[in-house]
Predict the structure.
Amino acid sequence: MKLMKKALAIAFSFSMLAGVSMLGMAQKTEMATAEVAMPHYQQTARAQQASEGLEYLLLKDYMYCVVMSIGTCKDTDIVIADTYEGWPVKEISAYAFDCTNLTSVTIPDSVTIIGEGAFSSCERLKSVVIPDSVTSIGSHAFFRCISLPSVTISDSVTSIGLKAFSGGGSLTSIEVDENNANYSSLDGNLYNKDQTELIQYAIGKEETNFTIPDGVKNIGDYAFYNCGSLKNIIIPGSVTSIGESAFRYCGRLMRIAFKGEQAQWDAIEKGEEWNYNMPADIMFVSDDYNFEDENMDSSVSDNDGNHIVIDVGCFGTAGLSTCLALMGLSSFLFIKRKDEE
């Protein structure tokens, strides 16, 4: 698997370079006419604080270096150098650091590309500094970084790939520079610039209720993927599409309140497995509805019609029907109650 990922990483680097090959030809120097060199180098001592042992790919034809892997480096606090053998380090390769034990990484301001899966499944990663120079964050770049509490995105980022921050169980804040022309943040969640698409909910939040802002039209692919805290969510009538696996594995989500009628809900375009292993019921409410109006307990009835109040967390990710069958129960209902005055 690692060899396959390495091959994919090299292919990914060259595919990214193909699009700028004409520009590279115009900028070549006599030195740059040499063949592309692809040895596995160790970090030089030029950068005083750079970690030693990192593996690099030197692309002389394109006049820069790519960080390929952790190599022989034993550090858990990684500092990537800004240059290698006189060449700027501009890219972190696909799957360069996936599944390692690093706890922090400092990326130099020479880097413009964070590749696909670059830090995927780095489960101990707690701190990353993304410099203003970065313009592209690849898909799955920080996927399942379950210890990462926050991410800051500068105004220079123009592209964020699918599931870039998905599965981060500790992620409570994604902040975007207000001058970014493509993305924005609201209450620590990631949106496109005009906030018509909710791209990523910070699933490490402890809140059990969430209201998607009015005006949002699209709930992005994997937007709430594996969110373990939410029990109730309000979706505005402005929503016209729900992406693939948007609520996948939201095992505690018991209620989706949609501000509209059933016909409107049925017309919403829903991606594949948008609600996979998500037990929530759909209810239709008025535009002025909010969770402060009422609380809701979960209740099941046994086969004799006796109601039993249970903790919604017991369903986990197994799915409502499966849990009921295992408990020998035949139906599910909600008991509504007013707050005590």
About this structure: DSSP finds four helices and 25 strands in the chain. Helices lie at 2-18, 21-27, 262-267, 320-326.
